[in-house]
Protein 1
Amino acid sequence: MMKPMKSLTFREIYKKIVYIEDKNSVNVLNKGYQIEIDGDETGILGYGYVDGEQGICFNVFSIVKVEDGNVVKYNDKPMELKINHRVRLEDVYNLNGFEVEYESLNLERYVDRAIEINEKFFESEEKEAIRYNRQIDELRHYLYPDDIQGYVYHKEKNKIEGLWVRTIAMLPTGILAKVITPVSREFNIALEDELEFKLFNIDGTLRLMYIIED
């Protein structure tokens, strides 16, 4: 079902085939990569992955035409030629699209290319484990899913402050993450500090916190 790209969840994007109603990319592939088109194409099929610097991106596999929510024509030349045309989620945030169901288009023909993209952008087993942790999905930055919202809490001063951290690894008792936004000096935490944050359920809301005891 067609809906705004900004409403798609991380689970509907990461390592999934997504239709994006992106005529600009169709024109780029046509004029920049000399891929022939008929002119009635409505968008692209992109494979969702995470680039450590660019956030969520899509590698274009096919140029397609969609009618009534169904792909009725596709051109797999971008995939067949292994063209690495990247579309950032940030750039198509306000367009429409949908996750393409695996069974609907015999998507097995995309498997080998998807594996290549996975291998190219693989960072670590630790990072993959965090990306597959559904528990923290609600805390993720929409465009940069390796970054999650957290809090630091100073017990003695009874002060709490929000910040963003970049996840590194799952630990037996929490998540190791690097501080990427500044906090007040009284917390004595600097940018790039690596700290172990723990998950707490506070009044029904999940929060990732680093607690300073003294």
Protein 2
Amino acid sequence: MLWDAWALLSIIALCTAVILWSCWGFYSDNRSESPSSLRLPLIGGGYLDVPHPSGHPTGRHRSRSRR
């Protein structure tokens, strides 16, 4: 029973860490100085800036249905 409790606690800790890490990433992306580009961290250090295409809406959206 003790092993099961440790396994459950480690799964909960892992899920909490992933949720907090993703929230921090979204928060820092929203508050970045250059909202016209996407900043991707590189493994060797530094960042890769990818510009957003002009005229393309950002965020979650659904395409308009054509009737």
Protein 3
Amino acid sequence: MPNFIWPNLKRRDVGPAGEFSRVLHWMGVIAAGLCLLLAVEFAVEGWATHLSRDLVAAAVALALGARGLRYMLARE
């Protein structure tokens, strides 16, 4: 199961671009989490369901985009 979640092993020698992509990846994951938390808040309150759906889509896009960036630059 862990290979499905994180398919490639973390490498030691990724260089400056790889380290930068790791930082960007985690910043993107944190931003996606905040978008998801805000989407849940809007959905619970019930007055901004359309905005809530948009925030969920933005959270998914941020998470996948950040992961893709890390895959391209750090190759992991």
Protein 4
Amino acid sequence: MITIQGVLKSLSLTALVFVLTACGSTQIKDPDQAERLLAAKYAIEAEYTLSVLVSNCKKMEASTRKHADQVQQQWWADNWPLVDAADKEFQSFVKDEQLKHGAQTGQLLALRFMMELDLKARQNIYQLTKHEAYRDDRCIRALDKYLEEELQLSEDKVKHAHLQFLRDYYGEKIADPHPVPVINSEYSARRDVGGKSLYKVEKIADKQLCDDFEILSLLEKGPKEVYGIFCEDGKNHMIMCKWGQCEVVKE
């Protein structure tokens, strides 16, 4: 016999199933410009960190070198199309910055991102290889993490969905695996490097540009020095010095 309690229980279970199904099928909205860049940086960082790890593990025993190649090839098979789309998005971001701020000054954010990316990856490698003993074993364990779900791009569901959006946006053609991010620049950002004209650059930045800033060295080549000035208000500048004569780059 059907009771009121039984009907209510059945309705409650049906409602619960409906709610769970609805939650599981919630669609992630298409990303805005900021979300697209965040997703691109997420994929680029994962690829760059692995590439640095692989490069270092290839300096070890033959079995470790072989394993590094295998892990990299598998990770590319699982993730490369999304990384390729991320790199295209990052290049688009740099071009937009150059249109807004000039061909040289528009590179500043990309150069700082690349520096921070490299510093983080190198620090991870240092922790892995600072002791000689069992370096191969530690390398293999670190590589194996890239075969697990937690280091796949799909681990972050939102960013993964945004990367899939970018993959569709940039079309069917996928470039072969290559170093990312692609930054066509003569400059390379470095922190805590003092050039001959650094004191003059600090004075110019303080008097003409902003109160709170970070200075990164971009180039030291003979009499030519180039510095990036990153102001706390978000406005960035480039100062170029030749033979000790420094001025803000106007573009």
